[in-house]
Amino acid sequence: MTPEMETRKIDETPDAGTAIKSVRVFSSGWADQHEEHRFGTSLPQLWWVLMSRSWVRTPINYFLIEHRDGLVLFDTGLDPAIKTDPHYVSSALGRFLLRRIFRLHIDADDRLDRVLAANNYSAGDIGTAVISHLHFDHVGGIARIPQAQLIVSAREWAQLSEPHPEREWILREHIEIPDAKWCPIDFQPADDPLLEPFGGTYDVAGDGSMVLLPTPGHTPGSLSMLVRAQCWSPVLLVGDLAYEASLLMNDTLPGTGNPKQLRATYSKVRQLKQKLPDLVIVPSHDADAERALWLAQPGQSRD
Ligand SMILES: [Zn+2]
Fold first, then answer.
1. pTM of the shown model
2. Spacing, Cα 28 to ligand 1 middle (Å)
3. Distance from the CA of 144 to the center of ligand 1, in angstroms?
4. How far is the CA of 277 from the centre of ligand 1 (A)?
5. What is the pLDDT of residue 7?
6. Where is average pLDDT lowest: 45-54, 127-136, 218-227?
7. Ligand 1 centroid to 294 CA: how many Å?
8. Ligand 1 center to residue 225 CA distance, Å?
9. How many angstroms separate the CA atoms of 83 and 207, rounded?
10. Which of 160, 176, 144 is nearest to 76 (CA)?
11. Span from the CA of 193 to the centroid of ligand 1 (angstroms)
12. Which helix (H) or strand (E) holds 203?
């Protein structure tokens, strides 16, 4: 990072400098997905879902940010009940397709509260969870944090009112649960020229340290979170916008999502990376997430 960039970053986020203590990645197990799913293909989706025999293993990650005001999650992972409850996915067609899209490797210890406890955190201390999108592998832990405010984009939330959200892998019965404190948010016009191309922002803590950006493509209401702290490389948690950072950088689209939206969002993220060369892009299913976050911390060399 050049001294010039360091100055600009702190000027633009005057209160953010020391607000973030750590960003950590945790996992609720692993999944195998088809290569066509992860790296894209010209073949029709139904073909590779039913016919592909090539699998690639991917983590099911979520992130914990220690902010001076409290603990914030970015996504909540997968609920191990998906393996033990035969009707976790209520529709028979859904269960049939799930087995052909993912092979899940998750056990009881991968439940959100148990993973946090194993790392000396309490699920009861989570104040806020930002949900990148409503797919079942990102909302699986919300039942373990009933006290937390659950932030989701209003556009993503609107999918629950559209016909058959379960066909988009949005499982209403695991989202609209008693005690869940959902807070659908609208993005506000960006006052930071750096973020203007995204068309709106939402400042989670009001200090510029955790800024949400609309990043549609994987789902229409997907969002990303830009985490900024003094002396750290800025970190962009992108959810499932891409399955690996390198795929986003070389414009390789996955086998799902809206290609036009994905391309437009990829371009905006690459523009941001041009303006912030140290930006560390971290997708939720990237096996390199832990290393990428470690390298973003002060004092680590990225060579
Ligand atoms: Zn996912």
1. 0.90
2. 11
3. 19
4. 26
5. 36
6. 45-54
7. 22
8. 15
9. 40
10. 144
11. 30
12. strand 202-203
Phi, psi of 35 (to 5 degrees): -55, -40
**Per-residue pLDDT reduced to its tens digit, 67-102:** 999 999 999 999 999 989 989 988 888 887 888 888
Residue identified by tokens 């992860």 is: 38
- Identify the helix (H) or strand (E) that includes residue 212: strand 210-214
- What domains can you pick out in the chain, each with its CATH number? 3-296 (3.60.15.10)
| CA–CA separation, 72 and 40 (whole Å) | 32
4 alpha carbon – ligand 1 mean position (Å): 36
How many residues are present in the chain?
A: 303
Rounded to whole angstroms, the Cα distance separating 63 from 76 reads 8
CA distances for 293 relative to 22, 66, 130, 213, angstroms = 9, 14, 18, 19
Centroid of ligand 1 to alpha carbon of 61 (angstroms):
8
19 beta partners: none
CA angle, residues 143, 237, 127, in degrees to nearest 5: 35
Select from 198, 214, 98, 91 the least CA-distant residue to 151: 214
Backbone angles phi and psi of 181, in degrees to 5? -100, 75
What letter represents residue 162's amino acid? E
Contacts of 93 (CB under 8 A, 6+ apart): none
Q: How far is the CA of 14 from the centre of ligand 1 (A)?
A: 33
Say if CB 249 and CB 159 are below 8 A apart: no
Q: Considering only 84-98, 106-120, 232-246, which range has the smallest mean pLDDT?
A: 84-98
Q: Rounded distance, CA 142 to CA 102, Å?
A: 21
Distance 265 CA to ligand 1 centre (A): 17
